[in-house]
Protein 1
Amino acid sequence: MAVETLRLFGLGARMNAIRILRTREQAIVATLTDFIWHSGALLAPVLVAVRFGHIGPWPAVAVVFMLAYGAAVSSLMDALGDSPWRLSYYIGRGQLDHFLVQPQPLWRTLLTDGFTPFDFWPVLTMGIVLMAWSAGQLHVAASPAWLGLLALNLVASIVVQTAFLYAWGCIAFWAPRGAEAISSAASRLVGDLSFPLDPVPRALRVVLVTFVPSGLLSWLPARALLRVAGGGGLDVWLTPVAAVVLGAIALTLFRLGLRRDRRTGSWRYVEHGHRR
Amino acid sequence: MQLVRAHLATARIAAFGPLSDGLWAVFPIALRFVRVLILLSIWPTLIPAGSVVSGYGLGAVLTYSLVAEAFSAQLDVRTPIGVALWNGAIATRFTWPMPLATQYAAEMAGEWALPLLLVSAPLLLLAPLLGVDPRPASAAALGLFMVSLGLAMAIGIAIDMACVVLIVRIDLGPTVLDAARNVVQAICSGAWIPLALLPFHLGAVFQWLPFASAASAPLRIYTGTGDPLPLIALQVAWAAVLIAGVRVAWDRTRERVALYGG
């Protein structure tokens, strides 16, 4: 099982390398696109922080750490595959059926589909370098324990984002036409909100670490790791706990959706389906 | 007359299409409330009440952010034409008895209906509850804002068509172009952050670009933070240059359109 999964990951990596290295222009465009793709969300908060010297209790350098953490999460997310971003399209357009007829478990198809590790290394590198630089500027003691917590929170943030996108994407099981693009809308929402959330009213902050957990993708973990004013001692464990809870919710929704899909089938292939 | 009816029908279909499965389509639209609430919460920590930073008091910048979100689709015009060109869906559109640009513009305008109804109107109505004064700087500012918004949309459509020309001529994927446009929109247009509040005097440069004419200009007129006449004059100039340039470019490009997929 693990061998076959690794083989598919290897296949994805090989195809990714072939596509990028096909021509020099292709390699340059792929690298630049990755930078451009992620820098939009990064630049606006940085420019505001530089202009005013801070955002709430966050000094500009801490904002850079937070955004670099977010860039590392999103580049790792992108490298790991397409399914979280495209789930509602797969379901809405009937493409899930293409996965179901493959001679392998659905989870493996979803896990390995679109694995592109070489597309996103530039932003991942940038994220790691900026995190190291800003942590140095803030005199953070980077002990092995701190680095372990950083790694744990990075993984937890990835799980949170995957679970969030899957949970929203599952709506397409019940509304294949209306919610076909909901994965894009959901990803835009968590991607657009890269500001420190300390000044946000408490009720909205609760929403932003639960139902729309963009706060768990960079703000809360960064605040806990940097010990920015306003955080608690246990905050560093909140994102991992949330990852477990949100992962369970997403899995339940996906299984319920699949159960419905077994009864109704895809609308794409019915006589008057919206894609015919 | 028939042409007008055809465009209205296209807009109507685009407006009601997302509702064919019920109200599910409302959720992603409603999520926009969250984004504007965050921005409205952050500004008071940066600009204390009573102080003015680069011509913006707290009230002005809050109104600016609220109106920018209410009209976000109109200030960042994206027709479906680029994606349709890339995936081949545009092939059948060439057979429609309507100009290509206007049929996609009609479709886009139809798609605006639901967000305007569900987000923009409630945002403006509920603004006082959020601590924002949604009123324009004056009655004249409102009138000039409408003129400026129309010009901004025209410039936006011209920029969108220019991107389509680029997609065809240099075989560039719309996702790549969209990524670049997102960066431009976030930084250079003033749709998120007023240009005057950018560091290093970047705003002084960006305000002359067409992206600012497509977003920042109407917002500055609405909030009374810019002189309307020079702003509108610049918009007229950009609209004339871009529309003429894009028409010529598209006429020279349309024969190069190669399609696959669909």
Protein 2
Amino acid sequence: MSLVLTIAWTHVRHRARQTLVAIAGVMTGVAFSVMMAAMMEGSQDDFIRTLVDALPHISITDELRQPSRQPADQFYSAAEFHGLTPNVRRPGIKNPMATIASLQGWISGALTASVQSKAVLRFAGRNLTVSIIGIDPRTEGQVSTLASHMRQGSLNSLYRSSHAILLGDRLAAKIGARVNSNMTLASAQGMSMNATVVGTFHSGFRATDETTGYVLLRTAQILERQTGIINEIRVRTNDPMQARLISERIGEQTGYKAISWQEAQEDLLSAITLRNVLMYTIVGAILLVASFGTYNIISTITHEKTRDIAILKSLGFRDRTIRAIFILEALFIGLTGAAFGFVLGYLLTRGLASLEFKTPFSDYNHLPVLYSLKHYLLAGAVALISSAVAGYFPARAAARLHPVDIIRGAT
Amino acid sequence: MTKVLPGEVPVTLVADIDLAIHAREFIAITGPSGSGKSSLLYLLGLLDLPSQGDVLIDGRSTTAMSEDERAEVRLSRLGFVFQFHFLLPEFSITENVALPMRALGRLSPRAITQRAEDLLASLGLADHLRKTPDKLSGGQRQRVAVARALANDPPVILADEPTGSLDTAATAQVFGILRDLVTTRGKTVVAVTHDLELAAQMQRRVHIIDGRLAQDELAH
């Protein structure tokens, strides 16, 4: 063992209690940082997963990115016309089945066609505007998580009759409807029909659960008074992160508006970036506080050891040797603290992940956590660097000590 | 050579001292307390820098040296014995004696331990090699300090009140060892002492009063 190492080790060994306290400080700092990061990123991941699951990864609608130009504008581009009756565009995606077949050729994922419609729902004397979505139960399950959110009945219950409807649980509760309740739907196209509740679902999104009803494609087409109309194609990509790219290609190919989930949730995703900045600030602060403990112990040791430092210097030890001794002690504390911190942090994360609780806003039973080597490396690096810095200043002061001042004081 | 402590009221510790120390001399620096005899020793030992003048070792100026070079000279050319033993409390006495050798790094670890044990044995401490300083008596500790001063075989040993905290018997023993260093090992020993009886037994006596050289007397 080198001389510097021998002396450093002897110092920390003889200050076992204080050294342990400093190590515990770094350990707690590292552990809580790791746990915090696991929790924050875990909940963020979970949040994104919920977002990804709740919405189709890509939704292709019969809208256009830009309103279509009126014929008069197309022919006389220099002139401007006012008061023209707008050209009526037939709603719906043209040749929906051919479009789906073509997209299925290159998109890795599942597609389903649906009809978005608005209707007024009448039940027990109440009128509510609801979104009626016509779906194909066979392909819907591959694209959305609706099937797993069913509270009563199932997607296939829709096949029971052409009047079958699945209601959001909050909507059902609001109007007091139950399974087998009969109600009336009136569409904007002036179509009125009876509907029978065959099931309820709970997606977790209030807006959806309060205003949405699912029916068969054909039923929605009747409400829209247009046989064969499809006004939305939803896509579930195998890799959700590719959705933005794929949506752009779909837009180019079909000319229709294709919106990826990232685009639909842009503001939420930017809030997450902000949250990350916040997280790293807090994690950094925790580690900084821990480094004060290291500073404390190293500066205590150097104060207690001023006499020894004077002796070593009078014997002919160089300044940098003295400095190395104390920096080494700080690094030892940092390294040991980080190592124990990793273990404690992992256990804390495990403990946190196994906790079961329920918040009034969600149905999570477990706190979502994310295990990432990155968190450990980051916390370890910050702990080590802050320990080295915390050790450097007392070490420098110790090395600058004038041996005569101490020897004279002692005699 | 002059040393002035700067401050609101500058204190002159040592003034206009001109001293030549030769090989194999046994010198006592005497004087009343506060006369500057310890300050003189620290200047000679390169622990302190003179405000004016120079300390020449083997004809080389030491004030022109860097701090690291002076440390190197202290390590290899000078040995210190202080009034208090100044041993490192956590280390065994063998390890304490080994420290300067390890810092110099000229010998292998095995040879260092061997030499440390030999030095301690030659000073009558063969039975205590593994003990820490707090397990030893004052006289024994001071002998360990002498062994440490001898570790790198320096030509000059500087001692600051080496018997100042010892009883009569231990004083006689440590003094005997210091004298043997001159007579049998051929060292130069410079010892600060206020004990005139001891000084009387030494070969050369330098008397300091108020920081000035009052008397430089050679015994016959």
